[in-house]
Amino acid sequence: MYSALVALTGAAAFSSAEPGRSYFDGIYWAISTMTTVGYGDELPTTVEAKIVAMTLMVVGIGYFAVVTGAIADRFVERGREQRADDVEAELHGDLAAQIDRLAGHAQELVTELEALRLAVASSGRED
Question: How confident is the model at residue 74 (pLDDT cuts 50, 70, 90)?
Fold first, then answer.
């Protein structure tokens, strides 16, 4: 929407600043200038048209830079989310493995404790 508004405004300014140029010539010129194609078949010849051209070039390049940055940001954000999910899954897997190891150690300790109780109980009977 913004780029259409800039193109139409630039076209109106070009056609009014350049004698003998139609509004359609202005639209063609504005779009080729905004997209930095600049074929060179429509050139500004008056000072006013050159000022419009410079303004439109800066606005066009700036607009496309913002759009490109927004698209790149989405890709980067998607990568961050994926890495965060991977790390979380890895941590969860590590945590589950640690819990299993601790449960095994606890069971070993319980078994050892029961063996010690039996040993103490049997040594107390022998005395």
Answer: confident
Structure tokens at 109: 């300790």
| Interval 92-108: pLDDT, tens | 767 777 888 889 999 99
Separation of alpha carbons 117 and 68, rounded Å: 73
**pLDDT for residue 23 is more than 70:** yes
What does the H/E/C string look like for the chain? CHHHHHHHHHHHHHHHHCCCCCHHHHHHHHHHHHCCCCCCCCCCCCHHHHHHHHHHHHHHHHHHHHHHHHHHHHHHHHHHHHHHHHHHHHHHHHHHHHHHHHHHHHHHHHHHHHHHHHHHHHHHHHC
Cβ-based burial of 86 (10 A; exposed 0-12, middle 13-18, buried ≥19)? exposed
Q: What is the pTM of this model?
A: 0.45
* AA letter at 3: S
Separation of alpha carbons 107 and 33, rounded Å: 76
